[in-house]
Design a protein that fits this description.
By secondary structure, the chain is α/β, with parallel strands linked by helices. It has 12 helices and 8 strands. It has a single domain (about 15-240), classed as TIM Barrel (Alpha-Beta Barrel), CATH 3.20.20.60. It is about 40% helix and about 15% strand. It has an 8-stranded parallel beta barrel with strand order 1-2-3-4-5-6-7-8, surrounded by 5 helices. α5 packs parallel to α6 and α9 (about 165-180) runs parallel beside α10. The radius of gyration is 20 Å and the shape is globular. The site of 3-methyl-2-oxobutanoic acid has 10 residues, from loops.
């Protein structure tokens, strides 16, 4: 099958955009080939989030994630998936400085990985960059509310939209990014009514994480949802399975079988023909 026909059956950015107000979009993070392969048929969007730094590399926050990391994981996720629209996060310091720098790095990510678009954090201050990218052929997903790349200015991982000022800021941020041409905006960790109001008022598709069901879609970090990553568990995470426990039990069994010489058994051993 040719590369072109492979890409045609994928969910595209316009498909996602057209779904505004429709059946909620399903999005999960993915960082690796095998996980992308498992998740692909169940989701509309696979997000190669910069959460990869915390979840896979044990970093304290997302600030040390590099373009090379995103490109490596993005390539693996595109390779492991056939249907989902793959979006790659732009790491901290790879886009904030200027629209031109953002374009150069975003183009690199798209060319290297084959992903359909990129995600950047920020609101009003990033609108010019969003417009610059979209006008030059780079689909952009925004990210407002709690912005993990800005935790040092905000002072931690806190839910947003409690005060009048916070509500206004979120509304302005989402509106400006949407008007600048973003096809979608992640709404992270905010009061339900604020997310609902933003979803109603902007043309971009909203993807909520800790922002209630009143968004156009939902995203979770896959390892949180599967109970693999449990270093911290925000209120908004629902753990659908305790894989950590299952991996622990399987590993314990493997270790005891090795020690007792039960594994490998005849079934796993080559005999002379
Ligand atoms: O980095 C990430 O995984 C994200 C999602 C949680 C939205 O930005």
């Amino acid at each position: 099958m040719s590369k072109v026909s492979e890409r045609i059956k994928r969910t595209s950015v316009p498909d996602i955009f057209k779904n505004k107000g429709g059946v909620p979009l399903v999005c999960l993070t993915a960082y690796t080939y095998p996980m992308a392969k498992i998740l692909d048929k169940h989701v509309d969007i696979l997000l190669v989030g910069d959460s990869v730094g915390v979840v896979l590399y044990g970093m304290e926050n997302t600030h040390n994630v590099t373009l090379e990391m995103i490109m490596g994981h993005g390539k693996a996720v595109v390779k492991g998936s056939e249907q989902a629209c793959v979006i790659c996060d732009m790491p901290f310091a790879s886009y904030q400085e200027s629209p031109e720098l953002a374009f150069r790095n975003a183009a690199k990510v798209i060319a290297e990985t084959g992903c359909a678009g990129i995600k950047i954090e920020g609101g009003v201050e990033m609108a010019e960059t969003v417009e610059f990218l979209v006008k030059r052929g780079i689909p952009v997903m925004g990210h407002v509310g709690l912005k993990p790349q800005s935790i040092n200015t905000v002072g931690g991982y806190k839910s947003q939209g409690h005060s009048e000022d916070e509500v206004l800021a979120i509304q302005r941020d989402a509106q400006s990014i949407s008007e600048a041409g973003a096809f979608s905006v992640v709404l992270e960790c905010m009061v339900e009514e604020v997310a609902a109001e933003v979803t109603k008022n902007i043309t971009a598709v909203t993807i909520g994480i800790g922002a209630s069901a009143r968004c156009d879609g939902q995203v979770l970090v896959t390892e949180d949802m599967l109970g693999i990553f449990t270093d911290f568990q925000p209120k908004f995470v629902k753990q659908y399975i305790d894989l950590q426990k299952q991996i622990d039990e399987a590993t314990q069994l493997y270790a005891s079988e090795v020690k007792d010489r039960i594994f490998p058994s005849r079934k796993h051993v080559y005999q002379k023909k």
